[in-house]
Amino acid sequence: MNTPSRKQFIELITHFKLATEATKEALASDYEQATRQDAEGKRPITPLLDFCMQRAGTRERAEAIFNHVLKNSRISYWPNPEVAPHLRDNQEIKEACSKHFIVPVKATEHLLVLCGCNPHDSEGPGAIWQKLAGAKPPFPVVALSEPERIRKALTQFA
Amino acid sequence: MNTAEIPSQTLNEAYNAIAERREVSPAALDRQTVDEPEFLAALAYVLGIPLVEKADLTQALLADCGQLAAELETAALMEYKFVPLARRGETLVVISSSPWDPITTEVLLGYFRQCPQIKFALASPQCLQELFDYLKQAEAKTQQTAVAGYMPKPLAAETVVSQPSGAVAPPAIQPAARTGERAPAASIVLPPGAKPPAAATAASAAATAISGPAQAGRASPMLTQEDLTHLMNVLAAEIQRLVQQKTRRSL
Prior knowledge:
heterodimer, A: alpha/beta, GMP Synthetase, Chain A, domain 3, 4-stranded mixed beta sheet, 50% helix, globular, B: alpha/beta, 3 domains, 9% strand
């Protein structure tokens, strides 16, 4: 588990009591296994937020987890993430986006708006930004969206 | 985008970001060479919020906005330059062309009391105008439906009475108050920009009918207990508003 995921993991399991002190490492290990399986299956890597929401027990509690993350982060929200049309055929971007579970919703000469699930994650946006940066790199902005919406958007890649 | 409305610190940060991106010193940056897309991108970056552009006004986004904006007068949205986009738990996400304006936040907190957290997306005034045009069309359609025979339900009696005595009243900043017009009585109980519920309009129409001569061929309108409760609510809210105004004046 990378550092941003670890941060989010600690925050969510503590706040929502998803695990006890005794079981949290087992839960972390479950997450590691899930991400390994995603990588092997060449699927988008399940974000930690999604993993925690799946273990929330009820839909209401899952929503509460998402709402907590949104409320306590400094980033804004994007309701309908869609991959910027001109990037949908770009396999390099697709791989980076699947790995970091991030969607580039806007990528213009001046601005790159990315939608992700972990406000602590700067590695993912940084990786995509670097791939898209030309001589004059665009201004990066990251917003939050629901994992299911991002997952759906990621299917827009060719 | 009218840069005069932007706080100087934000403006300077935006130009500094542009200068850094162009690899020139902020002092050497010729601001005349910065076009609107670059400026808006820099502004979104320094504010840390996404930018909504005309291309983003998809049916899905318009539907999201329309749903939340349906409770508010489009004129009020235009006055305060925002459109609510999404509500997630206690967080409200709003598209605004002036997210730095404290009045915008104050108005939003007054209306969406269940959302103490406001987050923004930036839009240019032109883009926001397109959004308003769409909302106006949607509003006109709703009104046509109402005229075509929709009879709304009466206003719930507890609308105002149920407010705790210590409840924070919505900010008394209304477009009408700014222009010096007098707000209709039915809108007094509502937060700024809130649409008077159709029931309130119906109640006010009933009141007008009572004060005027009875129309031939129609039964005399009767005030029900619910109507009376509603009128009491309007009166109570008006008293509260006047007391608040006086309190403010005395400060």
